Amino acid sequence: MAGLILSAPGSASGKTTLTLGILRALKNRGIPVRSAKSGPDYIDPRFHAAACGAECFNLDAWAMHPDHIRALAAGPDPLIIEGAMGLFDGAPPDGKGATADLARILNLPVILILDVSHQAQSVAAVAKGFATLDPSVTIKGIILNKVGSPRHERMVRLALAPLGIPVLGAVHRQNGLQTPSRHLGLIQAAEHPDLETFLDQAADIAADSVDIDQLIGLAENQTPPQATSTPLPPPAQRLAIASDTAFAFAYPHLLQSWHGQGAEIETFSPLADHPPPQADMVILPGGYPELHAGQLAANTRFLDGLRNAKAVYGECGGYMMLGDGLVDASGTRHQMAGLLRLETSFASRKLHLGYRNLTPQGGPWAWDLKAHEFHYATTLSAKGDPLFHATDAEGTVLNPMGLRSGTISGSFAHIIDRA
Predict the structure, then answer these.
(1) Which of 165, 316, 322, 382 does the annotation list as catalytic?
(2) Domain hosting residue 192, numbered range
(3) Same domain, yes or no, for 67 and 160?
(4) Does 52 qualify as catalytic in the annotation?
């Protein structure tokens, strides 16, 4: 396996757009390439997959065993990993799960993307700090982003020259290349109004501004050891999994693992009013049901099939779908499936964010789990038996998470892996 990691000092440095441009530029050259995303993210991986034509996996150094990460990273084609936040940013208290952890686990070099829009010579201090903070993390190259002018570029390059780190390219400020956004970040790849044009524009910018050959030449060959971690078993043998723009947040690594362990997986679309296929369990992943609540509430074939299913499990948006009602951002209440005594609302938003350690109190899971929570929904009422005992990344005990009633269960947590 040959690979490298694209990271930055912080968020909003241009990592995603540059990663997509590089992936599409390589695909346009006929070079097979794979991608991965650091941390818990459902949006960026779909853009990655569209850019390079291969499934993108999440590599989560907080939630996944190192051998699991190595197994997912292994493969014959070059692997480009997009980091999350800043290179050394992770969960409290010690930053575990940072992109730097992936660099150590996989022994891969880092390409540092520097937003130079508000700096000139001072960029050298930033680069030197990142290059020397941790000797086990190797910065092999730099890409300058949001360069203001040719003169600005010369100033920055001269300041960086004494560090001896190759500058692989300089991307000047661009207009019209930003992706539309909503309250949880980027829109989904499937919703982008002209995704192929956007990706091709990003590829043109990357090809014109970055030395792609030198970049790929810095990818180091590694041979990950055979994985020894124990995968999370599937919650049932036959799984019917909702899959559309309302319920799109299913982790590919889990679906692949479950399929490899013999589970039968079939997808369906609640938005298209498809009833769930016959299965031992229906899974409603997270997504944006609040944006389609009126339509979902009117889809009787979907709702009747859901209510007659053997077992149902919902995560985040899927969990809200299982409740009695959901209030959208305008204050309108929509009747949901009524399988759990749960009322949620987006009329009053509150951010819930962070890693979660979960111990099941019943329901379909028989193992401690690693998970992540990220939503703005407010719980108006939740009555019934809790699904999980939960702590955060620092071990602080949280309120019990989720609900369970017979074979119906769900919570706001997105499961990443077995603990």
Answers:
(1) 316
(2) 2-221
(3) yes
(4) no
